[in-house]
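Appendix B: complex inputs.
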Amino acid sequence: MREEKKETIKIKDSKAPLAGVGGLLIKNGRIITATDDYVADIHIEGETVKAIGKNLTVNPDKEIDATGKLVFPGGIDPHVHLDMPFMGTFSSDNYETGTRAALFGGTTMVIDFILQKQGNSLRSALEEWKGRSDHNCVGDYSFHMAVTDFNEHTKKEVQEMIEKEGITSFKTFMAYKGALMIDDRQMVGLMEEVKKHGGLINVHATNGDMIDFLIAKHRSEGKCTPLYHYLSQPEVTEAEATGRFADMAAYTGCPGYIVHLTCEGALNAIRNATRRNQKVYVETCIQYLLLDASLYEQNFEGAKWVMSPPLREKKDQATLWAGINQGLVQVVATDHCPFKWEQKLMGKDDFSKIPNGHPAIENRMELLYSEGVNKGKITLNKYVEVACTNPAKIFGMFPKKGTIAVGSDADIVIFDPNEKHKLSAKTHHMNVDYSGYEGWEVTGKVKTVLLRGKIAIENNHCLIDKGYGKFIRRNKVADKI
Ligand code: URP
Ligand code: ZN
Ligand code: ZN
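Resulting structure:
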């Protein structure tokens, strides 16, 4: 770990009372939160923000001049899969490389998924995941617990996960039959238990049986290229499952969160649910806002974007951007689940064997700024809301995380809104040998990142080591934000 040099500054107005000594001072930045936009200084002491104000009279150990820069809360990506066993292999970023890449891209905290093995307990899955993550994270992290086998034993573990472990959200899959999918009987049972103890259910909402039928049909017809991954998961498979999930959540009263929602039909199912005064949270991912299904038309190259649900159409991108501004979509995540090219080749003769997933943990904040804020699709406040604040609120971490306020963790990004640069596998820090955005020019660059008061990223270098990243216990979740 690098020793920080003590740099003292002269206080210009010697008559002003000294508001603080030591720590770190971020001077003169344009501070953006989900609601505010103002120029001020931030004084950080230890891991948290001590004071915010104009011309703070502080004699700090170190000062960062943020004039002309945006200063916003560290991003929170609530949907990542690190070192995850999946489809006969492991996602290629482990907890060290993944959380470090996240920091380079301005994301200071991630929420990863534990997958219960069918027939085994939630506890044993937690222990297995701790074995890979403990002492290995550079950035902060938490877990959602995926319940893949809800039974009398699992039922008893729900309360323990929430109260003892601070794991307050439970992931369910309505697809991937035989490995991860649960049926509606289990879903309703789990919802009742999770609601009772103050948790939330997040869901991969696609109709697994229908998808399996289409996969088998395409394979039997010899249609095996990545394009048929897309054609096996039409919009209706997502719209139907999203509506069904919303119905079950309305019936049980359990707070629900749809992960990686991609399309108009599915968002309309949520829109309909609001007509009976229901609230279901919605996450989309950066790739569904920016990329479309034409990428599957290029033979096996399309495997880079084989993910579930698949990329959709331009009209769906328009729906998602509108949904963000309508408040129907609260979170933009990544579903970061990278596989190297040699892993993608596992499916070279059969799209159903291509490991599903796409790398983006490092790119989300810059892409969303460049394509969203810079191109006038969302405001700066909305940017912070969907990328930082709402994930913290929904998943029980606000205001410790997700904002810049006195007493909050000093997870802070200093961002140059004008610097242009290109995304490339040659320069990214994710452990994957291609980029889904190769050659894209983005406007806006993460310059400095603080994690709990420590400078984590500066001048394109990571200054903290694995082990600094802390497991964040979460509170009971918000059913209102
Ligand atoms: O393709 C994807 N999304 N891979 C990761 C697992 C999941 O469904 O989220
Ligand atoms: Zn999923
Ligand atoms: Zn996922």
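The chain has a mean pLDDT of 95.
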